[in-house]
Design brief:
This protein is mainly β. It has a single domain, classed as Thrombin, subunit H (Beta Barrel), CATH 2.40.10. Helices cover 7% and strands 44% of the residues. It has one helix and seven strands; from the N terminus they run E-E-E-E-E-E-E-H. The chain has a six-stranded antiparallel barrel with strand order 2-3-4-7-6-5. Strand 6 and strand 7 form a beta hairpin. It is globular.
């Protein structure tokens, strides 16, 4: 639950390429970009429509560990992209730190 005063975890405006794949629809895999990230969630921009509640695996470029998450919302944007809000299955404090490191 998001408190009335805002989110539990502070988000950072950060653009990172990620690979998102559905655990419920294995054929659905996409390269996307983040709009913002936190240790417990991420908002990404995609081309495909993702279903709220759908279980996904997200792999930020250059990171060793992938994260499991579920889709909280999917919003069609005027630009033709889709904004997808993901909640990580478990808090991943290194997500933000590792995402800021330069890719090798």
């Amino acid at each position: 639950m998001i408190p009335k005063g805002g989110r539990l975890a502070k988000r950072s405006a950060l653009t990172v390429r990620v690979r998102i794949s559905s655990l419920d629809r294995p054929w659905l895999v996409e390269i996307a970009t983040t709009e913002n990230v936190s240790s417990s969630g991420v908002r990404i921009l995609t081309k495909d429509v993702w279903k709220p509640g759908e279980r996904v695996n997200i792999e930020p470029t250059g990171m060793l560990d992938s994260c499991q998450a579920h889709v909280v919302y999917c919003e069609l944007l005027r630009t033709g992209s889709t904004a997808v809000g993901l909640q990580l299955a478990k808090s991943h404090p290194d997500w933000v730190v590792e995402s800021r490191r330069p890719s090798a």
